[in-house]
Amino acid sequence: MKKSIGDNMIPKDWGFDRGLDLIKKAGFDGIELWLGDVPWFQMSTSDSEVRELRRKVENAGLVVSNVSTGLHWGSPLSARDPRVRAQAARIVERQIETARLLGSDAILVVAGLVTDEVPYNEVYQRCLDALRPLGEAATRAGVKIGCENCNSEQRFLISPREFWQFLNDVNRPAVGIHLDVGNIHDTGFAEQWIEMHGPRITRIHLKDVLKHRGRCGDQSVYTNLFLGDNNWPAIRAALTKVGYDGWLIAEMEARYRYAPDQQFYDTAQAMDRLISGRL
Amino acid sequence: MTRRQFLATTAAAVSAGNRLRGRVPCVLLDLQRDSLRESVAGYAAGFQPRVVRADMPEIPPCAVLLVPAALEISPLAARAIVRCLHAGATAILESAAGFLDERAFCAQRTVLQDYFDINAEPPVQLWPRQTPYVDYLWPYAAKLRDFSRVVPLGGQAGERIAWVDRLPVALKRGSGRGTLIFLGSPLGPALWAGDVEARGWVSAVLATAS
Fold first, then answer.
1. A279 assigned to some structural domain
2. Which pTM value belongs to this model?
3. Residues B118-155, buried b or exposed e (16+ Cβ, 10 A)?
4. Predicted confidence band of residue B1 (pLDDT cuts 50, 70, 90)
5. d(Cα B105, Cα B95) in Å, to the nearest integer?
């Protein structure tokens, strides 16, 4: 397995180049690029600028593990407004395009948002309708779409079996799950999600979770690896069982208040321990 | 739907069936890009209508004409709907103008006024709100999910058959030999998402067609 971390973890005043240097020095193999979340990688970033990002990544001795985005929280594929849905689909298309330009074969998508305004059945159906053609576009590009399990924040596809049925209904080989082992909270067990989805897992986000405190944002339940309630030996065993040998991508919501670079070193070392099974 | 509503709907459907000789029971006028596609899919899946494209609207004589979630109604399509009404059809004209910008809404409002004598008010964004329902009063009382944005109706002739937040958003009115039912809050997306109550209500409306 290889280690990666998001470019949205780079301290805001550091810039991309200095961030790459830190990520390499901390011991990571790759970087996850977040479309729309960082100043250097926006929807307006041109193809040539994206190629330049790739050149910088490779010059730093890294590769791009995948292309993620937080833009679908504001422009979901499940929106009722067809213009918003069109924009959401365009974001996925741009992720696919940039993944190719960056030499990666995976993207992360937050597939749909259930709200008090837009009910579950509509969201489910709209996501199927959106992901089927996007899945075909991804196949043509040689890219996998990983729908992230954002369980509590999305209020959608809460259980592993529900997610499994959803992927069956999408029925496109290029559409799988980008599994976040921290997002499951107290509604299940990450190791069971790994077992159930095995070959459909496109990438794995790593973080730990405090299951009995708050939700997210300023009441974050997310914490550094090994500080929370995830059963890491069980997660490691499940990864072995399903033969997962892909990217593990650190996604820390809570940041070190001081010495922010130290979080990169600590996280990389914790990931080494997880990969080696010395838990 | 209650047992009483179901029996009434079924009886009306049988009665209507006896009066349908020579007419197609149900036609869907597909406005294509000028409509919300999920609404078209919802009505098409729910009621198996004969589908006629709006760019070639040779609509056969029919008992019911469905026009799902219109974003833009061309004069060609509007004239075809009017012909159906004059021939005695019940037309369900659903507006999705709540999702249009001001200029496009004004264009739809002009068509509604000129061809159907419908006075539509500017769209209203319903959310955030406390309850997600529109209250329908005819053919039976039902609470059906709103679709976020509605086109309220101004003062005009006809029976107001649905309200949301004290705004009238649906209308039933005789038109020619037929009946025009205008829906300012699209129901097709709910049909498409499998909403049983929405399907029951639309079925009951269709069953009133003569």
1. no
2. 0.91
3. bbbbebbebeeeeebebbbebbbebebbbbbbbbbbee
4. low
5. 10
A82/B127 CB distance under 8 A: no
The verdict on ipTM greater than 0.90 is no
What class does CATH assign to B3-207? alpha beta
Residue A278 lies in a domain: no
- Which residues in A lie closer than 8 A to residue B38 (C-beta atoms)? 125-126, 129
Q: Are A168 and A196 in contact (CB under 8 A)?
A: no
Three-class SS state of A260: helix
Average pLDDT over residues B54-70: 92
Whether residue A85 lies inside any domain: the answer is: yes
Which DSSP helix (H) or strand (E) runs through B34?
none
Give CA–CA dist B122/B124, Å, rounded: 7
- What's the domain count of chain A? 1
Domain membership flag for residue A208? yes
Q: SS3 for A212? A: coil
Does the CB of B38 have a partner CB in chain A at under 8 Å? yes
B69 neighbors B35 (Cβ within 8 angstroms)? yes
Residue A236 DSSP SS3: helix
- Judged by a CB distance cut-off of 8 A, whether residue B143 touches chain A is no
Of A81, A119, A125, the CB nearest to B145: A119
For chain B, the domains span 3-207
Q: By the CB < 8 Å criterion, does B36 face chain A? A: yes
Return the structure tokens found at A11.
């301290």
Closest residue, chain B, to A127 (C-alpha):
B193
Range of the domain at A267: 2-271
Tokens of A73: 């929280």
Rounded to 5, what percent of chain B is helix, strand, coil? 35, 30, 35
Tokens in use for A74? 């504001």
Question: In the 8-state DSSP scheme, what is residue A38?
Answer: B
CA atoms within 13 A on the CB side of A278: 6
Q: Could you read off the pLDDT of B98-145 as tens digits, one per residue? A: 999 999 999 999 999 999 999 999 999 999 999 999 999 999 999 999
Instruction: Map B152-204 to HEC letters.
Output: CECCCCCEEEEEECCEEEEEEEEECCEEEEEECCCCHHHHHCCCHHHHHHHHH
Q: B75-86 and B102-116 helices cross at what angle (nearest 10)?
A: 30
CATH number (domain holding residue A131): 3.20.20.150
Q: Do A119 and B192 touch (CB under 8 A)?
A: no
